[in-house]
Amino acid sequence: MSVKNEVLNILESNKGKTISGQELADILDVSRTAVWKSINLLKQDGYIIDASSNKGYSLSISSDVVSEESIRMFLNEEFKEIPISVFKSLPSTNTKAKEEAISNAVHGTVIFSDEQTSGRGRFGREFFSPADSGIYMSIILKPNLNLSSSVLVTTAAAVGVLKALDKFTDEKSQIKWVNDIYINGKKVCGILTEAVTDFESGTVESLIVGIGLNVKTKMEDFPDELKDKAGSLLLNQNDNSIRSQLAAEIINNILSISENLENKEFLKIYKNRSLILGKQIIYTKNNKVEEACAHDIDEFGRLVILKNDGKIEHLSSGEVSIKNIVQEK
User: Fold this and answer.
1) What architecture (CATH level 2) is domain 280-328?
2) Is the predicted pLDDT of residue 236 greater than 60, yes or no?
């Protein structure tokens, strides 16, 4: 680890507290000049560091630059050693994660970017991912699943995100099947799960769980076509320097749930916090738009619908909208 990263690690672990340059130098067994150079490099990276010639250096509690160190310090002990790569900008964290998965990245590998220039959602839609305001990351999982069961991972990931949000806001978040998180009727998070498969065996070698979460994106910054649909987690809150801690909490939850998918306890939470169960929906299947009632979520995470002719059907993919919301828009 470079001196710069070691200094950052100490400052992150003591956020808001002042540590003298000499103390940092002694801990790292380097010169005070090396510490001073590292502090300046961190400032150039955007970290808010208060410096006093008499007291030392303090990483401001309002500093919200996300780094490998800032995420790792909030991870559960069993996940402390997972590989984490943090980038200033990427076209897409899922694309980067796929490349890493093909190169045999291990289970739990995390790719995080401060912004995405070509962020993707389901059906190839663009996901608005501006710098300094959201969590855009992908987690590589190595589940023992076949392709038909992979929707269960998206379901589990949605619950993992929801449980993390509950720790940082009093606003109730809900899940719109299969992969969107809503607060107060606005979408704040999308999840895109993509598989790297072994075509010969039909098994999933890796699953890439991509998460795009609007943490503090201002309403005026959203494109016009999203202003009536998208929201942010901390839109009305002052404490908005939480991205590292929130990202870590999401990672903790998803990795924990993914290791115990077979017990399917998370499905109870998913159903309880569903935005659509019991409501009339409009869904698209095989390029055909139909209406039905969202009846249940089955043990594989599929949406169980009750069609107007009384027949039951299970959806594992497709576009779903709540009927009255569509009509109002």
Assistant:
1) Roll (2.30)
2) no
